[in-house]
């Protein structure tokens, strides 16, 4: 306690102010890269702007006391006794105050997680992990540049789309078109879909299933989700999405039922030859492939079961009404269940410290759980935040075959992981006559971006050190050492676990897809969304949502990994100004507003006549 209190009563007052913000830490220590030295290890709150004048609380000199040498011992003992008594009283009231605050309803607690004094040497671990830095020189320059920017006005251009033409595109996939076939009376049978993967892979499978049902004039049975040992989530459609809304939104386009009619429930699709796996259809199959391969089975047996259905429907060429239906499914028909919407709204509101509705994105994703009433904190102004999907999990790192500056121990660890999880990859490497070296892979832009590289990009763009960075996902490889360079530049890293109490997260425990839905909401509604891997499903789906509903106030940052690798390759010589200019140019070129190109994902790039309407 004495270490925390610091300079007497000033430290005590700061602690008492700190207890106003309830700490939620699941009774576990936070990761080493999230802790602050000098604070109790169970405290995860980061406070900011509590400046006080120490002189206001200093003990005034005692007047009127007899100061003679004879009674000097009495004066000292009286003061000492008073200090001890005040200390005990302060501890008692502090304990009582903390207990009262901890018992307060979590929904009414106000969370504030700012700390501009956090630095790389302020993180302590029971088992210390040394920071791993690949670009020490650039990090030092970035740190100096951010320090200089603290007193300067941040450019408002960082928080809006750089191209105003983005606002000329409006959502319209939900509008009824007179020339579309619609939901025909005659029906060729039933389509069953068993989707694999995580939340976003399943979302793609659902909308592709809707498109195929329309294409083959069939009835879609509400899709099922396959259980995977990777995701460990038994959730089904109704646990994540609103079934009735899904059916009602698409009722004019296709027929949807919750289950097969009773006389067909006993049929075994595999036994009757109506089960379609990924091996039966080419990846990115065309409409002609479905008519040739699937339709005959559907007409013969009355049903077809797509097992593990994912990217088995290409984007072009397809009839325009099928493309429109995919967009309508993704952007309008799939609404998260109230349980997810409510906690998602709570998460976003606490991050922003503001309860009012902000955008069309908020309305579409959070539904009725947006509080239209302004609370007393909203007058102080909401907080902007940047959401970052940092793809640096061990499986992705190992599969890339790249090296990340961790030395021989890292190489051994990743090789052991490959042998355990990717034996086919190891075998292919053994049989390869000309394997690509890790250095060449990095130059080609084939390596996942490290947290250090992501932080350098943000610094190069001009985001200030105090920026809130919401970190989506989890399981960063060697997080304690890898996140150190990131938090050195951007200490205000926040996650859903920081803002939601254990009892609020409890209903989502062991349901990874439902937890991913909370990340989806936090990323899609963020003031800025940054990705490190444009190929990831979460990044693709979130960026598509922001393009569809965000207008010109939902910028998305997409680093070109090959160009970034070329810039970082000059770590030893490049000046900071040149680094900034090249990074900004790279990002701005990735933000250009263009129509979807042939063959590109309509979920990620919805700006096309089938999905959106362009205003003159």
From TrEMBL:
Keyword terms: Carbohydrate metabolism, Fucose metabolism, Glycoprotein, Glycosyltransferase, Membrane, Transferase, Transmembrane, Transmembrane helix
Pathway this chain belongs to: Glycan metabolism
Subcellular location as annotated: Membrane
One Pfam family in the UniProt entry: O-FucT
An annotated Gene Ontology molecular function: glycosyltransferase activity
Family that this chain belongs to: Belongs to the glycosyltransferase GT106 family.
Gene Ontology terms describing biological process: fucose metabolic process
Record-annotated membrane-spanning stretches: 78-100
PANTHER family: O-FUCOSYLTRANSFERASE 2-RELATED (PTHR31933), O-FUCOSYLTRANSFERASE 8 (PTHR31933:SF4)
Primary localisation category: membrane
Keyword 4Fe-4S: no
Protein's recorded name: O-fucosyltransferase family protein
Membrane topology according to the record: Single-pass membrane protein
Any one of the GO CC terms: membrane
Entry keyword Calcium: no
Organism: Arachis hypogaea
InterPro entries assigned to the protein according to its UniProt record, in alphabetical order: FucosylTrfase_pln (IPR024709), GDP-Fuc_O-FucTrfase (IPR019378), GT106_glycosyltransferase (IPR052272)
């Amino acid at each position: 306690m004495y270490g925390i209190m610091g300079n007497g009563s000033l430290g005590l007052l700061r602690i008492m102010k700190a207890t106003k913000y309830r700490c939620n830490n699941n009774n576990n220590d936070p990761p080493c890269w999230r802790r602050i030295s000098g604070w109790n290890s169970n405290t995860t709150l980061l406070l900011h702007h509590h400046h006080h004048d120490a002189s206001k609380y200093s003990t005034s000199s005692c007047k009127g006391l007899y100061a003679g040498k004879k009674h000097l011992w009495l004066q000292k003992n009286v003061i000492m006794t008073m200090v001890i008594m005040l200390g005990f009283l302060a501890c008692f009231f502090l304990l009582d105050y903390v207990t009262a605050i901890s018992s307060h309803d979590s929904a009414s607690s106000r969370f504030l997680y700012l700390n501009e004094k956090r630095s790389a040497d302020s993180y302590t671990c029971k088992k210390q992990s040394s920071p791993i830095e690949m670009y020490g020189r650039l990090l030092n320059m970035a740190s100096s540049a951010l320090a200089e920017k603290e007193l300067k006005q941040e450019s408002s251009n960082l928080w809006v789309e750089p191209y105003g033409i983005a606002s000329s595109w409006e959502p319209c996939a939900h509008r009824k078109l007179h020339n579309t076939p619609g939901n025909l009376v005659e029906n060729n049978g039933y389509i069953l879909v068993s989707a694999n993967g995580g939340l976003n892979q399943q979302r793609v499978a659902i909308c592709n299933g809707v498109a195929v049902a329309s294409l083959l004039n069939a009835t879609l049975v509400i899709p099922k989700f396959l259980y995977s040992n990777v995701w460990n989530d038994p959730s089904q459609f109704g646990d994540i999405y609103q079934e009735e809304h899904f059916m009602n939104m698409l009722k004019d386009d296709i027929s949807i039922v919750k289950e097969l009619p009773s006389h067909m429930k006993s049929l075994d699709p595999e036994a009757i030859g109506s089960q379609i796996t990924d091996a039966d259809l080419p990846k990115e199959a065309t409409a002609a492939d479905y008519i040739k391969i699937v339709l005959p089975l559907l007409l013969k047996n009355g049903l077809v079961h797509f097992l593990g259905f994912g990217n088995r429907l290409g984007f072009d060429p397809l009839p325009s009404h099928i493309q429109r239906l995919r967009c309508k499914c993704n952007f309008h028909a799939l609404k998260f269940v109230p349980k997810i919407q409510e906690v998602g709204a709570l998460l976003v509101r606490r991050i922003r410290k503001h309860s009012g509705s902000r955008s069309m994105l908020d309305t579409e994703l959070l539904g009725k759980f947006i509080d239209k009433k302004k609370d007393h904190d909203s007058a102080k102004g909401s907080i902007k935040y940047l959401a970052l999907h940092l793809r640096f999990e061990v499986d992705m790192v190992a599969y890339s075959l790249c090296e990340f500056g961790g030395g021989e121990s890292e190489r051994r660890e990743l090789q052991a992981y490959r042998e355990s999880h990717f034996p086919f990859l190891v075998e292919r490497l053994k049989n390869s006559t000309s394997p690509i070296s890790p250095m060449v892979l990095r130059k080609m832009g084939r390596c996942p971006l490290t947290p250090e590289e992501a932080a350098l990009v943000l610094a190069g763009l001009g985001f200030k050190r105090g920026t809130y960075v919401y970190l989506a996902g989890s399981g960063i490889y060697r997080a304690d050492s890898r996140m150190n360079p990131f938090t050195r530049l951007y200490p205000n890293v926040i996650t859903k676990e920081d803002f939601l109490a254990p009892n609020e997260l409890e209903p989502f425990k062991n349901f990874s897809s439902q937890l991913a839905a909370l990340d989806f909401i936090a990323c899609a509604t963020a003031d800025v969304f940054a990705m490190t891997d444009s190929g990831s499903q979460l990044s693709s789906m979130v960026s598509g949502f922001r393009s569809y509903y965000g207008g010109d106030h939902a910028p998305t940052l997409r680093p070109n990994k090959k160009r970034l690798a070329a810039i970082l390759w000059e770590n030893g010589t490049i000046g900071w100004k040149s680094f900034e200019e090249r990074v900004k140019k790279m990002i701005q070129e990735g933000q250009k507003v263009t129509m979807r190109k042939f063959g590109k994902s309509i979920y990620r790039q919805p700006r096309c006549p089938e999905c959106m309407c362009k205003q003159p």
